[in-house]
Amino acid sequence: MTAATVDRETSGARGDQPPVPDGAITITVKIMRFNPEVDSEPRWESFGVPALPTDRVLNLLHYVKWYLDGTLTFRRSCAHGICGSDAMQINGVNRLACKVLVKDLMSGGGKHTTITVAPIKGLPVHKDLLVDMEPFMEAFRAVKPFLITYGNEPTRERIQSAADRERFDDTTKCILCACCTTSCPVFWNEGSYFGPAAIVNAHRFIFDSRDEGSQERLDILNDAEGVWRCRTTFNCTDACPRGIQVTKAIQEVKRALLFRR
Amino acid sequence: MQFHKYDVVIVGAGGAGMRAALAAATEAGHAPRTAVLTKLYPTRSHTGAAQGGMCAALANVEEDNWEWHTFDTIKGGDYLVDQDAAEVMAKEAIDAVLDLEKMGLPFNRTPEGRIDQRRFGGHTRNHGEAAVRRACYAADRTGHMILQTLYQNCVKHGIEFFNEFYVLDICITETETGPVCTGAVAYELATGEIHVFQAKAIVFATGGFGKVFKTTSNAHTLTGDGMGIIFRKGLPLEDMEFYQFHPTGLAGLGILLTEGARGEGAILRNASGERFMERYAPTIKDLAPRDIVARSMALEVLEGRGAGPNKDYVLLDCTHLGAEVLETKLPDITEFARTYLAVDPVKEPVPVYPTAHYAMGGIPTNIHGEVLRDNDNVIPGLYAAGECACVSVHGANRLGTNSLLDINVFGRRAGLAAAAYAANHDLVDLPENPTTVVENQVSLLLSDHGRERVADIRTELQATMDANASVYRTEETLKQALHDVQALKDRYAHISVQDKGKRFNTDLLEAVELGFLLELAEVLVVGALERKESRGGHAREDYPNRDDTNYMRHSMFYKQGDSLKSEIRLDYKPVTFTRYKPMERKY
Q1: Is B509 an interface residue toward A (CB < 8 Å)?
Q2: Which residue from B413, B409, B399, B410 is spatially nearest to B92, judged by alpha carbons?
Q3: Which of B43, B185, B321, B376 places its Cα 20 to 30 Å from the Cα of A235?
Q4: Which cofactors must be present for this protein to function (chain B) (predicted)?
């Protein structure tokens, strides 16, 4: 993607800025902008933002939106890494903007630092950092991400040992932020690949002792667009803001396919 | 303008909204055409941030019964709880948890493989004898698991969602028998288009309004939209002065650290290391209800016993729990402390201070989720559930875990009631020009009519609410807050929205949200000024005692006109009692 660069470090301000807190340094936030209503192609734009080392990148984006350019568009909600709204490429790596602190990104000496922010890759960009999540959610829904059981339900809860519960604990943490899927080179090249997040959510049920739908799900994942596309580059595992061992989960699904009855 | 017709329309896709949708789709005995409208994406809602658990007297690990749960809820709510509603909630809690397990929710398990249970604030054995293990949980991400499980089941049952559709108004048609709710009007974020959803029944499940405060556990998107819409329609809001401050927010940030930490044995300490809750609640100590713990923490700081360089917080000590308990039962909060404060709870105590957390008040409903149009009568076709609603099961102070319970019990009830109503009624014609209010609102905000910045007004609103209307309040601080909020409302008339586009105009969205916040902040402050007593989450320094003679009653707020600055009329509604007489509240 080629992108023109505009420097708005000193221009574009909307009136007086709020007071700069003690200890703040100026960070250059370089953002990939694209609004199909006015732009023919994406462009880079830079903003000077006062920031504390403990600020989240999300705070910097809010500063730009609230005080410099109200048209900057991104999703966010909980602001502490639980809702999964604000996945974006920060300095080239998929992260949640609310979970990366400025101090983690400061270059040596911490005098003048540039942080680049771009939309996650492989999904159509609607506007600035906000992408179309539908292809991602479609892949999620396609793997039957829900408990499948047959026969009568028990009157009380189903019994599950603590060890059986632990077996799929890691993949229950997924918040559907798409950091993993949009860091996957296979997904970039072939958007039809289910992608890591869908497989993680299939894993969450395949390895749940209460579930009786594993065979259906494994059939789906055995498809041409399924788990065999994975080339174990581990980008997904590195990108996961929840620390899920994504690649391991995918490998476990592959193994389940190889050794299934 | 686009037009849609449904039997049931649910506004909000958090726990209450999705539970309502599932009840309508799978339990109603017929399948009403149902749509869920959400201003976010499903699974982004703040139900997912709830951590500690969901109480139900399963008695899986020790003796318990739902009557004790009812009593704890009523006492915890400082006797402002409608007791019939609390009984319904505690009784149906058991099936609510079992239903979630059957839907696939991965609860933590006991050694026997049953759903495990932990202690939580204010939940006790035999009417206050000792803390009881009642909270069913999935590590410290119970809300996340509930939200995911409900969405998974919505996928399973093919529930129809309209994502990023921001509902800005409801349609009320005047009929011979009185007003009837006939639809909802939404602004589609992707296109800027306005959609009218005509429906037999509308369920509001739009969440809270924590963003009136600066220090809050709430998401940026929790701006009280649903309550604001209802209030602007001249329908009442109830008990809005009762706002909960969760004791353990990360100091300075407000990010929630679950009460489940104290349920697992963590201890609050002041600067000198003293376990100060022993002085305030000698029996259950750190597991006293949230209002009591939050006030105690604020007092410790006010009286100079706070920790840190500015003595402005206290410490949550988890160090004796050991790394294994923290990593397995409290992994998320352990990570929050590490990420946001660079403090490792395994090795050192965590700085905490109360954070604005939950609205006990909201849209008044009966136990079927039907919305009241005045103190006594419902408006047919309109339902509400979850934090935006006030049943009232939480009274003056909600017990921990009872919100996840509330969304499941009353979300389901509202969904069932809406489906039943839809089955027995025909569509009623919409009022003339149903989109006028929304069209005018949007075009006014986008027009050039001033230079005030949304962020400035919001920042000042949050600052005055934190300073003047939080844990402790006085006549003087509340008058200051009222003055400030009214002045900010004047300035709101001159805000400028910089983004004039149609596509994902989140600049416009924030301006609309700010309007709702200003509306609700004033209601909260007016209610707090008028209630000259201390009860639950409402603590008046100038009136430190509970006054049952004059204030054992629900506040009902009515907006008296169409402008942002219209007068608020305050009325009262009696509390429903069944078997529990008000007593002094000691723990």
Answers
A1: no
A2: B409
A3: B43
A4: FAD
Residues A196 and A217 in one domain: yes
**A-chain residue closest to B50, CA distance:** A82
Total tally of structural domains belonging to chain B: 2
CA distance B526 to B57: 38
**ipTM at complex level:** 0.96
For the four alpha carbons of B248, B135, B152 and A244, in that order, the dihedral sign comes to: positive
Q: Measure the CA–CA gap between A43 and B35, rounded to whole angstroms.
A: 38
Residue numbers of the domain that contains A227 = 132-153+160-259
Q: Is B138 on the interface with A (CB under 8 A)?
A: yes
Q: Domain span at residue B294? A: 251-354
Under 8 Å CB-to-CB from B399, ≥6 apart: which residues?
A: B55, B72, B73, B76, B77, B120, B121, B122, B123, B289, B290
Cβ distance A80 to B43 less than 8 Å, yes or no, reads: no
Of B119, B133, B232, B290, the catalytic one is B290
CA distances from B273 to B54, B296, B376, B464 (A): 31, 15, 51, 32
- Band (pLDDT 50/70/90 cuts) for residue A260 is confident
pTM confidence score: 0.97
Q: What is the reported pLDDT for A1?
A: 41
Nearest to A36 by CA among A70, A9, A73, A68: A73
Q: Decide if pLDDT at B58 tops 90.
A: yes
Q: Which residue has the tokens 């470090």?
A: A9
Q: What is the pLDDT of residue A10?
A: 42
**At B122, is the pLDDT very low, low, confident or very high (cuts 50, 70, 90)?**
very high
Question: In angstroms, rounded to a whole number, what is the distance separating the alpha carbons of residues B302 and B46?
Answer: 31
Q: In chain A, how many H helices and how many E strands?
A: 9, 8
User: Within a domain: residue B441?
Assistant: yes
Q: Which residue type does B160 have?
A: E
Give the bridge partners for A89, in sequence order: A94, A118
Angle between helices B454-468 and B475-492 (to 10 degrees): 170
A225 band by pLDDT with thresholds 50, 70 and 90: confident
A92 and A14 within one domain: yes
Residue with tokens 């909204």: B17
Kindly report, residue by residue over A97-128, the tens digit of the pLDDT: 999 999 999 876 656 689 999 999 999 999 99
Here the tokens at position B41 are: 């994406």
pLDDT digits (tens, 9 = 90+) for B158-193: 999 999 999 999 999 999 999 999 999 999 999 999
Chain length of chain B:
587
Element (H, E) at B549: helix B548-551
Q: For residue A242, what is the domain's CATH number? A: 1.10.1060.10
Residues with Cβ within 8 Å of A228's Cβ and at least 6 positions away in sequence, in order, are: A222, A254
**Which residues of B are less than 8 Å from A138 in CB distance?**
none
Q: Does a structural domain hold residue B512?
A: yes
State how many domains chain A has: 2
Closest among B12, B31, B122 to B398, alpha carbons compared: B122
Q: Are B499 and A83 a contacting pair at CB < 8 A?
A: no
How much of chain B exceeds pLDDT 90, in percent?
Answer: 99
Helix (H) or strand (E) holding A243: none
Q: What is the pLDDT of residue B81?
A: 98
B152: nearest CB among A146, A168, A169: A146
Query: Each residue of B204-241: pLDDT tens digit?
Result: 999 999 999 999 999 999 999 999 999 999 999 999 99
Do A114 and A141 lie in one domain? The reply is no
Q: Are residues A113 and A210 in the same domain?
A: no
Quick check: A82 and B340 CB within 8 A?
no
Indicate whether B233 belongs to any domain: no
Domain edge (last residue) among B329, B354, B379:
B354
- The answer to whether the CB atoms of B115 and A37 lie below 8 A apart is no
Is B290 among the residues known to form the active site?
Answer: yes
**What is the side-by-side order of every strand in the sheet holding B553-559?**
B237-238, B553-559, B568-574
